[in-house]
Write a structure and sequence with these properties.
Layout: H1 11-16, H2 24-38, H3 53-62, E1 67-70, H4 77-83, E2 91-95, H5 110-119, E3 125-129, E4 134-138, H6 145-148, E5 150-152, H7 154-158, E6 169-171, H8 173-176, E7 180-185, H9 192-196, H10 199-202, E8 220-226, H11 228-234, H12 239-244, E9 247-250, H13 257-267, H14 281-295, H15 308-329, H16 341-348, H17 362-382, H18 388-393, E10 399-403, H19 408-413, H20 421-427, H21 435-451, E11 456-459, E12 465-469
Parallel strand pairs: 1-8, 1-9, 4-7, 7-8
Antiparallel strand pairs: 2-3, 5-6, 10-12, 11-12
C-alpha cells in the first residue's frame, strides 16, 4: 500500500491545509522560476529553440502575458503550447461538480455561489489533474460564439427555468477551461465577429452571453497561433485583438542540419516489421539537406513554408523503400540507399506549394534540389578523398548498374575487392560495416562523382535504376 497524503475533501479542510492560493499565471511563473533556478531544461523534446524561441516564451510567462506564436506550418507551435501544461501544478482543487472549475475560495458561477452561501466550509472539493486544465480549438470559419463562450441551453429552459436565470447558460470551451490554458490554433481563420468576442476575455476577463447581466472573472492563460503573413500583412486579426496579446513569439524552422536530423530521429515512426532497419547517418543528412534546399528555393512558396513534417515523412518513406527491397530480395537488413530517393520525391510531391511560372515543372524543381543536396553532402563529407582506385575501375568498358530492387551484395559484387572502401565508410561516419551500408556509401560516392562531372550516369530504363560508366576517353570533365 502507498502512503499517499490525504487530500482536503472540502473547503474547510483546504483552508486548514494552508493551500497556496495562486492564479494560473502566477502558478506558471512560479513553476517556471523553479525550473530555471534548478537548471532543468524547459522542454527537452523541443529541438533548436533553446537560444531563440524559448527565451521569448519564458519572458512572456514571467511577465504574465497572454501569448501569440507566429510561424509557418510545421514549426512546432502547437507542440510548444501543449508543453506549457507541464508548468501547471500536478493538480488543483475545484468545487466538486462545477462546469467552470470554480476556485473553492472564489466561486464565480451562480450554482457554486449559491452552494457556498448555503453549505459554507463543508462544500466538497475535488482535484483536477493538469492534463484536464488544457483546451485546444482549431479556428475554422464555422466556429461560433456558442462554441467558445456559450449560449442558452434550450433543454434547461424546457426543464422549467426562466430565460433570465443564469443557470440556463451552457458554457463554451473557454469558460469550461477556467483556471487552465486555452489554445486557439490559426487565429486569423476565426471570423472577425468571433474575434471581437475575445476582447473582454483577454482584457477584462469576463464573458457576455446573449445580453445576460453576468460577469465571470475567468482565470486562464490564452495562447494563439498564426501565420506571420496573415498576422502582419492581410490584417485578418482585428487590431484591438492584436493589442491584447502581451507577448509575440516568432518560431522558425531548424537552423542547423543537426537539429533537423534530431527531429527526424525523434518523430519518425519506427516500422513494425521483423526486418532490422539501419539508416546510415549520411542518408539522414541528405534528407535534411534536401529540406534546407527547398526552404531557400525561389520556386517554392516560402509563405506556406516547408514543414519539418516534410523531413519526417521523407525519412519514413525512405525506410519503407528499403524494407520493400529487403522483403522482395531476402536481404537480412533494410538499409536505405540513393536509389530509394526517387520514391521519396514521388511520395512528397503533393506536400509542397510551388511558385514556378511554368506548370508541370514540379518534378524537375524537386530533382534539381535533390542533386544540390547530394552534391553538398558529398563535398562536405568526402572533400579531398582519393577516388583514384574507384575511378580506375571505370577505365575501358566497365560499367556498374544499380536499382531500387538490386540487393546490396549483388551491387557490390560488380566491383570485386575495392581498395579504400573501409576508408570511405569511415569518412561517412559509419562505425559498423555491412553489405547494405557499404552499398549505400558506394552509391553516394558514385552519384557525387557523377554530379562532379567525373563519371557518366544513365537511366537504366525505369525510375530508381541507373548505370554508371567512365567518361569518354577515360578523362574527367
Amino acid at each position: 500500500m502507498t502512503n499517499e497524503p490525504i487530500r482536503p475533501a472540502n473547503i474547510g479542510q483546504l483552508r486548514e491545509s494552508g493551500f497556496d492560493d495562486r492564479t494560473v499565471k502566477e502558478e506558471l511563473r512560479h513553476n517556471l522560476l523553479d525550473r530555471l533556478e534548478a537548471g532543468q531544461p524547459l522542454f527537452p523534446s523541443i529541438v533548436g529553440f533553446d537560444e531563440s524561441v524559448l527565451p521569448a516564451l519564458e519572458r512572456g510567462i514571467l511577465a504574465g502575458h497572454d501569448l501569440i506564436l507566429l510561424g509557418e506550418r510545421g514549426q512546432a507551435k502547437t507542440r510548444l503550447i501543449r508543453h506549457l501544461v507541464e508548468l501547471l501544478d500536478e493538480d488543483t482543487p475545484v468545487i466538486a461538480g462545477c462546469e467552470v472549475n470554480d476556485h473553492p475560495y472564489r466561486p464565480i458561477c451562480a450554482r457554486c455561489r449559491a452552494l457556498v452561501a448555503e453549505q459554507g466550509e463543508t462544500v466538497p472539493v475535488e482535484w483536477l489533474a493538469r492534463d484536464r486544465r488544457y483546451a485546444e480549438k482549431l479556428a475554422t470559419p464555422d466556429t461560433s460564439v456558442a462554441d467558445l463562450i456559450g449560449d442558452v441551453d434550450p433543454i434547461r429552459v424546457a426543464e422549467g427555468r426562466y430565460l433570465s436565470d443564469e443557470l440556463t447558460i451552457h458554457y463554451g470551451l473557454i469558460p469550461r477551461t477556467n483556471r487552465g490554458i486555452v489554445a486557439i490554433n490559426e487565429l486569423p481563420d476565426l471570423p472577425e465577429r468571433i474575434q471581437v468576442g475575445l476582447f473582454n476575455i483577454l482584457e477584462e476577463r469576463d464573458v457576455q452571453i446573449r445580453g445576460y447581466q453576468i460577469r465571470l472573472p475567468l482565470d486562464l492563460l490564452l495562447v494563439a497561433t498564426a501565420n506571420p503573413e496573415d498576422y502582419t500583412h492581410r490584417g485578418r486579426i482585428v487590431s484591438p485583438l492584436k493589442d491584447r496579446f502581451g507577448t509575440q513569439i516568432r518560431t522558425h524552422y531548424p537552423e542547423a542540419l543537426g537539429d533537423e536530423i534530431a527531429i527526424m530521429d525523434q518523430e519518425a515512426k519506427a516500422p513494425a516489421a521483423g526486418i532490422p532497419v539501419r539508416v546510415p547517418p549520411f542518408m539522414k543528412e541528405l534528407l535534411a539537406a534536401l529540406t534546407a534546399e527547398l526552404r531557400h528555393s525561389p520556386q517554392i512558396n516560402q509563405r506556406s513554408g516547408v514543414s519539418v513534417r516534410y523531413s519526417i515523412g521523407n525519412v519514413e518513406t525512405l525506410v519503407a523503400a528499403a524494407l520493400r527491397r529487403a522483403a522482395r530480395t531476402g536481404e537480412p537488413e533494410a538499409v536505405p540507399r540513393l536509389v530509394d530517393l526517387p520514391a521519396v520525391l514521388a511520395g512528397s510531391l503533393g506536400r509542397l506549394e510551388f511558385d514556378a511560372v511554368e506548370e508541370g515543372r514540379e518534378e524537375d524543381i524537386l530533382l534539381r534540389a535533390l542533386k544540390n543536396a547530394i552534391l553538398e553532402v558529398f563535398r562536405r563529407r568526402l572533400a579531398g578523398f582519393d577516388f583514384g582506385p574507384l575511378l580506375q575501375r571505370f577505365d575501358g568498358t566497365f560499367g556498374a548498374e544499380t536499382s531500387d530492387l538490386m540487393p546490396a551484395g549483388e551491387f557490390l559484387m560488380q566491383f570485386g575487392d575495392l581498395p579504400g572502401l573501409g576508408r570511405l565508410l569511415g569518412r561517412l561516419g559509419v562505425e559498423e560495416e555491412s553489405p547494405g551500408v557499404a552499398a549505400s556509401a558506394l552509391e553516394l560516392a558514385l552519384e557525387g562523382l557523377h554530379l562532379s562531372r567525373r563519371l557518366n550516369r544513365e537511366s537504366a530504363g525505369r525510375i530508381g535504376a541507373y548505370r554508371y560508366e567512365g567518361l569518354p576517353g577515360g578523362r574527367e570533365r
